[in-house]
Design brief:
Radius of gyration: 17 Å
Number of strands: 8
Structural class: alpha/beta
Largest sheet: 6 strands, mixed
Strand order of the largest sheet: 4-5-6-1-7-8
Number of helices: 6
Order of helices and strands: EHEEEHHHHEHEEE
Strand content: 5-15%
């Protein structure tokens, strides 16, 4: 159970599920269903009031180096005065800590991520100069530099053009092929160029039977 202060009802309750390693699972539901709350809890960013939440057999709160949470684009300050390259490099900070500076290894990881997400011509561009699709590719590139075993992707396909969706789908498929575990929150799986190993439907903070069509979910 996860409940926010002053909330009348828990954001998530009576929730029981598991995710096999090296699989890609979809977390589907409308706005307010609890998808983002679930992902943040799995990333160790929100505590559970009751029950247990484990990642790789340890409490989620202790698994930050192995877990990467990719937030929704709307939760990022895209006016922050740094370049695309600097933004992607922040993905290495989870392993470096506050005192150690990025070295050759981290810079090589950034270059590899830039190439995988087709960002080579944008590395010196300011964040405020990016389109929505470019922003999403930068976020995923930063996640690649994190080099996690579990990726928690919060609405990564929302509002993207088909070309960007295909780029993201290709990289996400490569992560799964590498043995990474992925959980992606989405409103609907229809028209997405990607397949999932498992689908979990959330409604009002609980797992529910799947609806006849997720087209009924408002974006």
């Amino acid at each position: 159970t996860i409940q926010f202060p002053d909330a009348a009802e828990p954001a998530l309750h009576r929730l029981s599920c598991s995710f096999a390693p090296a699989t890609h699972s979809a977390l589907i539901g409308p706005n307010g269903a609890g998808k983002s709350t679930f992902l943040k809890a799995a990333a160790g960013l929100l505590p559970a009031q009751s029950g247990s939440l484990t990642v790789f057999d340890c409490p989620a709160i202790h698994c930050h180096p192995s877990t990467c949470y990719l937030p929704q684009r709307s939760n990022i300050d895209w006016e922050f005065p740094i370049t695309v390259e600097q933004m992607i490099l922040t993905g290495s900070y989870i392993h470096l800590g506050w005192l150690k500076r990025p070295g050759r290894k981290e810079k090589e990881q950034v270059q590899q991520a830039v190439e995988r997400l087709h960002l080579t011509d944008l590395t010196q561009r300011r964040l405020c100069q990016l389109s929505g699709g470019q922003q999403q590719r930068v976020l995923l590139a930063r996640a690649l530099v994190h080099d996690a075993q579990l990726y928690l992707l919060d609405e990564p396909f929302t509002g993207l053009d088909s070309a960007t969706m295909e780029i993201l789908s290709e990289v996400i498929g490569e992560l799964r092929a590498e043995g990474r575990t992925l959980i992606t929150s989405i409103h609907t799986w229809e028209h997405l160029p990607i397949e999932f190993d498992q689908m979990i439907y959330l409604q009002d903070g609980r797992i529910q039977p799947p609806p006849e069509s997720t087209d009924t979910f408002s974006p």
